[in-house]
């Protein structure tokens, strides 16, 4: 029996855990230390599109429309200015500005009036034009400044709150780090204990399912192997050494043990190495193989008997010959817990029919009735 391989020791895992927790600690420390610059960079994007407010864009559209009406003499200048006023109005006319800034509604009414006037192809005088556009522009500027102040206030409050929590985050991270080391050490200890217990259990289980003399499975192993393949079509061979007691009496038990090991190798080769072999006790063996019909089973039985005949192993105590011979009984069955006992009995009966007919032969059970599935 091959010994169960020992696993490598695991201090490397402990160091890996230490490095992982250290990296986590450094990452948390880095994030909490640099959170203020990151937040500041996000909330202070006043120079790009993300940081701009709707009021800023609305004011720019109105300023562009004022410049177009005052300085552009192109035939489509009024139409372009009217379109720019429409864009500025749409960005200006939102609930937040209406509800919180008193200048919003008068400014929108002025823009409405100017938009209708321009729609009639009437261009107001520069003085009136400036008045109609400058009041909304001043209102939008007031909104921009107020929104910027509120934005800065929110940013500062958030940053201050973050700073207050930095110490708590770092302390919590340290506790997590120490607990992680403790739990990892406990895990490694438990893993080693479980690994040792598993190796011992596997060793004892392997010994319990193996024949110590030949190294093949025993009766319990045969039963377990059948149960691991429910529904499969299997062939069972029961193999008995003819006149084995006389062999031991003539040559002694050490030679009998050597014969058993030699026959195991012969049977394995005869079955092409595809069958699982078992020692049922004394001089009786069993072989389990996959087969979908009786023909492969018959070929296997014949191959085992012929292989031993061809080996011509001396048997000085054989009453009917000079060499070792076998008697083999076989049966095909469907692997089920309730069917195995009947299949074993059928193969055993076929084996004893061979013995009754003079030994040195084989027979496959036919026409057996297996119990119905539970």
UniProtKB/TrEMBL annotation:
The keyword Ubl conjugation does not apply. Residues 232-367 form the GGDEF domain. Keywords: Membrane, Transmembrane, Transmembrane helix. Its EC number is 2.7.7.65. It comes from the Bacteria. It is an enzyme of class 2 (transferase). It catalyses: 2 GTP = 3',3'-c-di-GMP + 2 diphosphate. The keyword Membrane applies. The chain crosses the membrane at residues 12-30, 168-189. GO terms for cellular component: plasma membrane. GO terms for molecular function: diguanylate cyclase activity. GO terms for biological process: cell adhesion involved in single-species biofilm formation; negative regulation of bacterial-type flagellum-dependent cell motility. This is diguanylate cyclase. It comes from Franzmannia pantelleriensis.
